[in-house]
Amino acid sequence: MRTRKLLAVAFLLLFVAAACTNEPEPSGGGEPAGGGGETGAAGETPFEHLNRALAGEFEGTTVEVLAQWIDAEGDNFDAVLQPFAEQTGIEVNYEGLTDYETVLTARVEGGNAPDLAQVAQPGLMQSFQASGDLVNLSEWINVDQIEQDYSSVVDLAEVDGNTYGLFFKADLKSIVWYPVRAFEDAGYTVPTTWDELMALQDQIKADGGTPWCIGMEHGDATGWVATDWIEDVLLRTAPVEVYDQWVAHEIPFNSPEVLEAAEIVSQIWFDDGNVFGGNTAINNVFVGHAMNDMFARPEPKCWLHKQASWIPSFWPGAEEDPPDPQFEPGVDSTFFYLPPIEEEFGNPVLGGADMIVMFNDRPEVRALLEYLATPEAPLPWIDAGGFVSPNQSVPDSAYTTFPSSGLGPILSQATTLRFDASDAMPAEVGQGTFWSGMVDWVSDEGQNTEQIFQQVEESWPSG
Q1: 268 shares a domain with 148
Q2: pLDDT digits (tens, 9 = 90+) for 138-170
């Protein structure tokens, strides 16, 4: 089943590539009425409860939403929710948290689950479903419409043929950011092969600089940055079948191919002078601030930052209104594709996605979830940048903002597309021992790789 789900994400990213490479036009506003496919009477959507909400039937009720989107990302999600609240009279209480997985799990286990919650890991969704905490969306939502709009990813949120979540946001991870002006002034060029990337790393050091900006502190989610690196390298050094088998635990977690990928990452992360602040900074610098030193004046303190397409939301000045012009996305910093390592494994791409799941079944909660499934809902965040929707009815013309507009060429040339492995693994491994093991791995500068990976292997749930 997991292999099938990984392939489904591949189709998602291929769709995104098609959306991003078309000639853009100005996007429309964030009106909740509408939706993909045919609609009924004027102002109606394909969704029963959303239509009733727009008619004022649930005015005065309240829906609670919990997610890990904070700071600029939290503001962008608030902008998504605002049109729904204004047009329905339903109050939406949204809270973004840093220690998100811990808080969400504790609330669910304590019988105080939010109405809706964001989940980035299919494994975590499956755990909540297995414990009977999630609402089966297939019992009441317009399944035909969902399958039409999310045909490439709907299987990822299914258990035994029933849907328990709707994907709302997708991200591309196989990219490296760099400071454009300083890069050009130094005479550096964008690497297109792994050897060229390693040569650039060495040249930056020879010039007295520090190549990499890396930080992975993220509350109870600390460690995922390292898992992303290992997953990206594994896709570049082993057949994709090995990656799929690893995710499904058809081969041991500490297989030789995985240990080799970890060794390659350790050579970048832990060799003297490669990372600004060394391993101490890696474990203690917040994920959203790791790139700040790239913008240091008069020259960068570090030059390269591997992170997903959402990172501009955390750039210095991004939270100002208006944003600080000296950090303009696409001008002061942009990205290149993380190059392949072994030619025989082509140009792989690693991606991820966030779904919305439902814990409490009330009409107003159904209405909000249906609204988030419309192609109009994500437009405010798409306009803000750094957002790609898995809804295939979102118009191609919506993607006018960097970096979403620049992802198409990378995706269109991808030979392999895979979902983040730690997100697809069982939650107790992918978001548990794998993440925490990476913190220990960084603390010891990669000296305990075999021991840590053996411990993760032993933690894999039986059955």
Answers
A1: no
A2: 999 999 999 998 876 677 788 999 999 998 998
